[in-house]
Write a structure and sequence with these properties.
By secondary structure, the protein is mainly beta. It has one helix and six strands, in the order ββββββα. The strands form two sheets. The chain has a four-stranded antiparallel β-sheet with strand order 1-4-5-6. Strands 2-3 form a two-stranded antiparallel sheet.
Length: 120
């Protein structure tokens, strides 16, 4: 049995928008710049994948599985209005919450950083 996995295309489209002050470099000879100060910012990312799976008998060359091309798409949106913090949405958050059972699986920090055996 031979299995071939093919990728027709993989890509991510990204859009970042912010309202505030951009980074401002100070005049030479100073290597210092005033940092960017966003009052509000928005990020949007859309990922697309075109995949195919083909499995066939190596000797007879007869196809056992031929999925054709399958298009998959996911998106992530983040909005940070002033004084509210980050508001995240999109299929990435929804699907991770469904499959892991953790509603904040992307944005929350891990509760256990390292485990050790007792007595060590």
């Amino acid at each position: 049995m031979t299995v071939e996995v093919a990728s027709g295309s993989l890509g991510t489209d990204s859009t970042d928008t912010f309202v505030g002050t951009p980074e401002i470099p100070l005049p030479p000879p100073s290597p210092i710049a005033l940092p960017r100060f966003p009052l509000a910012q928005r990020t949007r990312r859309i990922g697309t994948a075109k995949l195919s799976l083909l499995a066939y008998d190596t000797k007879s060359r007869l196809a056992v599985i031929n999925t054709g091309y399958v298009l998959a798409r996911s998106d992530h949106r983040s909005w940070n209005p002033p004084g509210v913090g980050g508001l995240n949405s999109g299929t990435v958050h929804t699907e991770l919450a469904e499959h892991t059972g953790e509603p904040d699986s992307i944005t929350s920090a891990p509760t256990v950083m390292m485990a050790s055996r007792p007595g060590r």
